Amino acid sequence: QVQLVESGGGLVQAGGSLRLSCATSGRTSSTHRMGWFRQAPGKEREFVSAITWSGSRLDYADSVKGRFTISRDNAKNTVYLQMNSLKPEDTAVYYCAAASYGSSTFSLRTSANAYNYWGQGTQVTVSS
């Protein structure tokens, strides 16, 4: 089992920044890739970003490219999501997820179905 705990959410004005953290514990070595997803009220959960523990592959949703940066600290078993130039449409609950297996295509890597461990989520609210 792998446990994921997100932190760092909060309320910020448009144009501001937040850094989310996802601390992992348990059989972290059994995971291949970490991802961030988000879900706004009344909307489906959507992919935000993902990174392999090796750091060899990073993926971003088009809506966050150039504004968000994903990174990992293997020594701390922690993944981060630096969010800059935040917009009101970024408001959502952000979830950290872990995938046990690699995926060869972007569509597979960004699918929530490819992730088998999930955190409880952290709220991000961006005011206009």
Report on the structure:
This protein is 3% helix and 50% strand. It has one helix at 106-109, and strands at 2-7, 10-13, 18-26, 33-39, 46-52, 58-60, 68-73, 78-83, 92-99, 117-118, 122-127. The strands form two sheets. Strands 2, 4, 5, 6, 9, 10 and 11 form a seven-stranded mixed sheet that branches. Strand 4 and strand 5 (46-52) form a beta hairpin.
How would you summarize the topology of this molecule?
Elements: E1 2-7, E2 10-13, E3 18-26, E4 33-39, E5 46-52, E6 58-60, E7 68-73, E8 78-83, E9 92-99, H1 106-109, E10 117-118, E11 122-127
Parallel strand pairs: 2-11
Antiparallel strand pairs: 1-3, 3-8, 4-5, 4-9, 5-6, 7-8, 9-10, 9-11
Q: Helix share of residues?
A: under 10%
Roughly how many Å is the radius of gyration? Answer: 14 Å
Largest sheet descriptor: 7 strands, mixed
Alpha-carbon distance between the two ends: 40 Å
Beta strand %: over 45%
Number of strands: 11
Task: For the structure shown, list the relevant keywords.
128 residues, mainly beta, four-stranded antiparallel β-sheet, 11 strands
Summarize the structure.
This protein is mainly beta and 128 residues long.
